[in-house]
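A quick aside before the break. I want you to see a complete sequence-to-structure record at least once, exactly as it would be stored in a machine-readable document. Don't worry about memorizing anything.
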Amino acid sequence: MSAQGLPMKVPAPGLPARVRIHEVGARDGLQNEKETVPTEVKAEFIHRLAAAGLTTIEATSFVHPKWVPQLADAEALFPLLDDIAEAREVSLPVLVPNERGLERALALGARSIAVFGSATETFAARNLNRTVDESLAMFEPVVARAKAEKVHVRGYLSMCFGDPWEGAVPVAQVVKVAKALMDLGCDELSLGDTIGVATPGHVRELLTALNDSAVPTSSIGVHFHDTYGQALSNTLAALQHGVTTVDASAGGLGGCPYAKSATGNLATEDLVWMLNGLGIETNVDLTALTATSVWLAEHLGRPSPSRTVRALTPPPSSPSHKE
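That is the input. The structure line, written in tokens, reads:
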């Protein structure tokens, strides 16, 4: 929060008292970087995020390096985070695409994993080289093994609000795949607006349809991209519906290497600013978080796209000119 005590807290009726931020910057954010981010920088980034108060920080992905080379150092990175999980009781979920990925993650002691599905056939083919049904079949033994090991399982569902190749995605189609993911045994479902085309009414309609299909709001998280500047308004619509888990990326990093129209994620700082103003507890220190994103932006060689980071960061002083 800024030195002037802003934003002023003005609660709104019908909103949750607390929101859990599922921080995705270290995985979803960095996977789209063109230049390789050193492992030690990633580890420091995650440590700083934990120090800022984030308690769920998606650490990396155990995919084949050929597909996501930015995350090829998963085996080297994950052991560097042991102290966070132990000292700060921070959950460090990792993405696993298949049984081999799960084996790698379990070998390093991962206690929370995520599988990544698609609501549309085109993106399933481009991202997983499978049909939707084939991808669900691939996830089935992964989820079953994870649950047998008492590992928390999140199911990501991409293209819930629109697809760059197929256009509008029918709500019923999204619900069908979402329900199938939950029926596999996922503990949690993250609804992905992968290309950032959702609007608040669409968000409310999908959440209602999921509830009608016996997917409880308590199991749902939302994952909005800010392509059209709608991420915060869509988040507010989800909060009004009762959602208490929101995905966000420090500094607004991210995108999707398999969907070129997908721009950055909702910035964690922008989300925290709004939640602070609404009096919703997050346990996140906005000053420390902003400093973390500024630090990472320096390593990446460009300014953070987060509006809040820019607003809270003093501009560099101009050199004085003397005659």
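Two observations worth writing down. The mean pLDDT is 92. The beta strands are 20-23, 56-57, 60-61, 94-95, 112-118, 152-158, 188-193, 220-224, 245-248. We'll return to this after the break.
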